[in-house]
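Lecture notes, unit on protein representations.

Consider one protein chain, 732 amino acids long.
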Amino acid sequence: MRRLLILLFLICGILSNLSAQNANGPIGQWREQYNNKTIVHVIKGDKIYGASNNQVFSIDSKKNIDLLGKSNGLNELGIAALAWDDLHHQLIIAYNNSNIDIVQGDKIYNLNDIVLSNLYANKKINDIKIFNQWALIATNFGIVVIDLVKQEIKDTWFPNNSRQSIITYQTTYTQDSLYAITEDGVYSAAIKNNWVTSNTWSTTSTYKNLGLNKLSSNGTQVAVYNKRNMYILPSTLPITTKVDGDIQQVTIAKDGSILLAIDYATKGAILKLNTDKTTTPLIDSTLLLHPIELLIDQNDYWVADSSNGLLLKNTASQWITIIGPSAKINGKSFINETGLIAPFNGNENGFATYNSNGWKNFTKNNAVNLPICIASVIDPKDQTYWLTSKNTLLHLNPSSASIELATPSSILGNFNDIQFGSDGNLWLLQDQQGLLKKNNATWNVYAPPKNFMTNGLNNMLVSKQGQVWMIAPPYQGLYVYQSNQVYATELWKQLTTSKSNGNLPSNNVTSLLEDKEGAIWVGTDNGIGIFNCGDISKEICDANLPFITNTNGFVGLLFQKERINCMAVDGANRKWIGTNNGTWLLSADGRDIITHFTKNNSPLPNDTVVQILIDPNEGEVFFNTASEMVSYRGNATDGAIAQKDLFIYPNPVGPNYNGPIAIRHLVENAIVKITELNGRLVFETRALGGQAIWDGKTYEGKKLATGIYLVFVRDDAGNEKGVGKILITSGQ
């Protein structure tokens, strides 16, 4: 009894001390970091549901937002249509590739019959309508009927009463009839016993060859329309609205009033159609830009705007912020222990930042649009942000949100890259010119020799040794600059595939990385070379071309014939490699493949990975792909300089938890021992950088009994030590 009281006392103490340690997700967790400003669907279910191009979200009555994507169960990207099955409390999601997911609570059922079918050349899904216990999937070959009870395909209907494909855009129904709008006009069929018999469809020539492609109904009235004209069935006279814009959606309210979502190309509006064909604004163009869908939920009007996001209007109007950057990230992002900064580049102004508080978007400064930003860095001294925009620099203080603009050079050429050296000086890479370095308030220019091509300078790396490595213009290899402030001789040098002058695997260099030991990894369109060079004025600087043994036992050059788009190093000095075939995690020396993620075996949205960034504190790995950004909670972090308090997650460990337990804030490569309270050793491991991983079991793989376990940490020299506790509740 006395031992039990002591255990309970310790449990209470550890719970009070560790209740705040559950803020981070588990090792191996994926998260989408998508641009959710483009909203393409909004519907009503048990909650409000909507979708951006690649992600579904829900909003409850308290305006809490949950996200649903590949990271938590969906099977695809590219949302084509949404529908809610109120009878069985299911969300039906159709994708652009014709795959279908049915979400019921925490379960997701996949129907891939249409994807796998070879019967029809064009299987595009256009719309979903719930009809009793059936989901009617309007496709480019007909109507696929899904049994929502059995969650399987029941039948395929062809409104033209044949087995010939017919593009079907949408369906809707009234109490006694089902309607389909197709490439051949409007078809209807009688509803008998909650079902429609095949080959009983009828049509009229009135609605043929008019370009009609959408339907809307309130259960009594049916509207069929295109961008300019609308018919209220069975009238043969069109209603031509007196608006100078495109009709995106017609909504017939329960009281019979007709609302129009209008796109004027440069602005949008929701209008109420009057009996004299004039319109009255319900939501005007001061708010909307490109409204696509309107949902009426009692007194709430929800508008999906493909450019501005999701608008809610009742007594007032408000934009509902869906988590994520406000545009696709096309610039060069940067990350350190304080957060991530991501320029939009392309055609989008401004940039976004990400930290423990989530995403924040910067597109204006004092109501003036920010310029298009190319590259970014965070000042290690004061954590302010620096970004390049053509030949201008933006300097942002995040605490005051003040932005300063500077023009270091009036010479022609964009500043395509920016980086701080280990000495705290700021470097710029200017296309067509060379290097600029800021020392206090002075800018110095370092131009390459005249025989060096400079049109296309885009990427650089300022090494810890003080050399600047640059990707030369295409098929010119590398340029390396070393200053006489660090070395005895100032020198520019070009490295190529030639022996004793680079030994690169290809002259088409694509990416650069400096690892924890100071080695320079160079990615090309034919694999990787590794440099360990000192003073390049005195010694040959050749790449080592690492070999690797694949699963078939074949020995070859590392990533031979593979294009290396990007590289990053984690806290354990392991290398993440981004290619056009997914992302790879290599051992520190590059000889072993630890993990290979693709869009088929992970939530990666695209196999073309263009940039990888790693949070040094959390170990979270951000993959920016050709389509969207996602992140993955890795198992390595940067090591601490001195051993302080341990961070253990999760803690307590619940009886149903079977994932890894992370022990963080360790000195680099620390030895970690797990013992019982009496000192008996349970498990021993070594940290990956500053984080150790334990599966919560003994050496023999046995699950531990409920209790408190001690964690002892020390470095190899025995100088840096730490102690922690883990509470395990096994349910035994």
